[in-house]
């Protein structure tokens, strides 16, 4: 079966791709060879029609009455999400959130790995290396250090007032993707992708729905 990849998919579908990959990896680990849309939907917490619609953007991933081949779909989503090779990532900002991420072993769960970190030049950890061998440099060295690496992806955990300034430095240094924990909309070139993680907003949404249930 030839698996086609259509990149023009809705954002909501794109945000579920990693969930599908995770589910197929779990099914594969559990020795499940075939899975239907209801099984996949139940595992994620959505409806089966959404699963079928999402999968339709990528061509014929399964056959009616036969379900989806778990191993083939696991490999398909691994390829789609570039999880067949290590993706090196940089971290900017090693405050409380950044510090936690710096010591979180992404590579033990997937193929992403923080390989270099930055903070203000006067940060006490600048010039040191983590136990995992991740060097920490001052922000003034970003352009120099990135020119020596193949890192194109950054995690940004700096104060909101510094987010745009640092994002500009990153994009000027060749970074093409930013995961920002700062609740500020970043102005970046059209060929740069930004994803936002707003923990406060997510918590407030959770509390809203909890109150609504009460």
From TrEMBL:
**A GO molecular-function term, please?**
DNA binding
| Domain (CoA-binding): residue spans on this chain | 82-185
One GO cellular component this record assigns the protein to is: cytoplasm
Q: Which residues bind NAD(+)?
A: 93-98
Could you tell me the keywords of this UniProt record?
Cytoplasm, DNA-binding, NAD, Repressor, Transcription, Transcription regulation
Residues the UniProt record assigns to the DNA-binding region sit at 19-58
The organism's place on the tree of life at top rank: Bacteria
Q: Which locations, inside or outside the cell, does it occupy? A: Cytoplasm
Q: Which NCBIfam families match?
A: PRK05472.1-1 (NF003988), PRK05472.1-3 (NF003989), PRK05472.1-5 (NF003991), PRK05472.2-3 (NF003994), PRK05472.2-4 (NF003995), PRK05472.2-5 (NF003996)
Q: What does it do?
A: Modulates transcription in response to changes in cellular NADH/NAD(+) redox state. Binds to the promoter of the aldehyde-alcohol dehydrogenase adhE gene. Functions as a redox-dependent repressor of adhE expression.
Family of the protein in this entry:
Belongs to the transcriptional regulatory Rex family.
Instruction: Tell me what this protein is called.
Output: Redox-sensing transcriptional repressor Rex
Q: Which organism is it from?
A: Streptococcus himalayensis
């Amino acid at each position: 079966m030839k698996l086609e990849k259509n990149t023009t998919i809705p954002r909501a579908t794109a945000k579920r791709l990693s969930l599908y990959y995770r589910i197929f990896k779990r099914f594969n680990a559990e020795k499940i060879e075939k899975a239907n849309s209801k099984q996949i939907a139940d595992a994620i917490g959505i409806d089966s029609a959404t699963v079928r619609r999402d999968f339709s953007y990528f061509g014929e991933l399964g056959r009616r009455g036969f379900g989806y081949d778990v191993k083939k779909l696991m490999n398909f989503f691994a390829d789609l999400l570039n999880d067949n090779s290590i993706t090196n990532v940089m971290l900017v900002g090693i405050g409380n959130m950044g510090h936690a991420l710096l010591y979180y072993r992404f590579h033990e769960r997937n193929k992403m790995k923080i390989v270099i970190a930055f903070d203000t030049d006067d940060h006490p950890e600048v010039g040191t290396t983590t136990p995992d061998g991740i060097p920490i440099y001052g922000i003034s060295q970003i352009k120099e250090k990135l020119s020596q690496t193949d890192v194109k992806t950054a995690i940004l955990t700096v104060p909101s007032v510094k987010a745009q300034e640092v994002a500009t430095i990153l994009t000027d240094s060749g970074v093409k993707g930013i995961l920002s924990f700062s609740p500020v909309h970043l102005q970046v070139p059209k060929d740069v992708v930004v994803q936002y993680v707003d923990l406060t907003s997510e918590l407030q949404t959770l509390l809203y729905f909890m109150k609504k249930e009460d």
